[in-house]
Design a protein that fits this description.
Length: 461
Amino acid sequence: MQDHLLFDRPLVEKYDRPGPRYTSYPTAPQFHTAFAEDDYRAAAERSNRAETPKPLSVYVHIPFCKSLCYYCACNKIITHNTERAAEYLAWLKEEIAVQGALFDEGRRMTQLHLGGGTPTYLSNAQLGELMASLDAAFHFAPPAEREFSLEVDPRTVTPEQIHELHDLGFNRLSFGVQDFDLDVQKAVNRVQSEEDVVALVQAARKAGFESVSVDLIYGLPLQTVASFDATLEKIIALRPDRIATYSYAHLPELFKAQRLIRPEDMPPPERKLELLELTIRRLTAAGYVYIGMDHFALPEDELTLARENGTLQRNFQGYSTHADCDMIGLGITSIGKVGDTYSQNVKETAQYQHRLGEGRLAVFRGYRLSEDDRLRRDVINALMCHNRIDFAAIEAEHGIVFRDYFADALEALQEMADDGLVAIREHEIELLPAGRLMMRNAAMAFDAYLAHSKGRYSRTV
Ligand code: SF4
């Protein structure tokens, strides 16, 4: 396992600086409002006319939550008024119908992801309505080809409901656990019992979910190495197929909820690195493979296999095994990627309803990629998914001479090469085991916008 990832503390400290996560390239700060509804419709039309139209991937954003987790940086609406969710669902159905009409009937929908907020804020009956609307508007791929997932807040569902979710057509789920320690849970206002999580994971296995994932966060208030070690041990014992360990970015000046965390409870920066080191050591010792960017998976998991055979993909939801899809974003704030464009929906429910009420789409900004953007996107994806850039493959696809075109980037990468993090060879660049935690830093060398970007980013490690 250690050939995949090495934790070199001094180098991790040296390269830990703000940088994009590259769920898209160019990143969201480049999106602009000159790209509007008509541009999106044109992109959908072009995607239908492609020689081989891509399969479809749909993301649905459910923004509601019953209580506020103090670390939260998501776009959410905290409310106990379930009427609001019922009203939102009605508009969502409108949007599904309008969007579904833009894409040719023959195009299969192979991927679905429900994120939030809390998708399980909706009752299973409401989720059933949502699935029926999607099924009516899009052509679902046969069950064996589908990757239909949702995020589950363990506080909102029972084991019986987990079985129902499987019956509704979902075959993957991720549980937001974050930390089992009660003091940490209280400090972030997210108390959930270990027993409940264990019962839900067992129910998911029994129900036949193909992939069960658990999300953890390190760097939360009151976390110690010993307390997080105990959480990791319990999670490893549950043996989820995938584990995502996110680094908590404490930015109270940006996210109001985080101001509710007591500053004196925050772990010092060196503790965060200890927690990261611990996480890598424990998970790799337990047989998990580092996929990249906070994600670990069991050796037999599809993500690990895709990483090994070079078919791993990266999208707005993280890593995926599915072939490149056209992605449709539904609900407030959601982002789509259709052909050579990105698009984003409005962020407020009032605007969302207003636009849909006028028969318009909810897209309010976006971006159409230039040839240079597409080239850089391919290079960054190669690094993030395969730890390697094959110059010949990029040259054949884009008609450039890699070493000439990227002379500046190669120069910028030299420091990482001198530090033993990347190898720059005659025909390729490879992220070395000590550099894999710093893949964002390497990707930043190929980002043409970063120097002038006003975006605020989390730290790279
Ligand atoms: S972390 Fe998740 S459940 Fe908690 S407030 Fe944010 S979106 Fe809601």
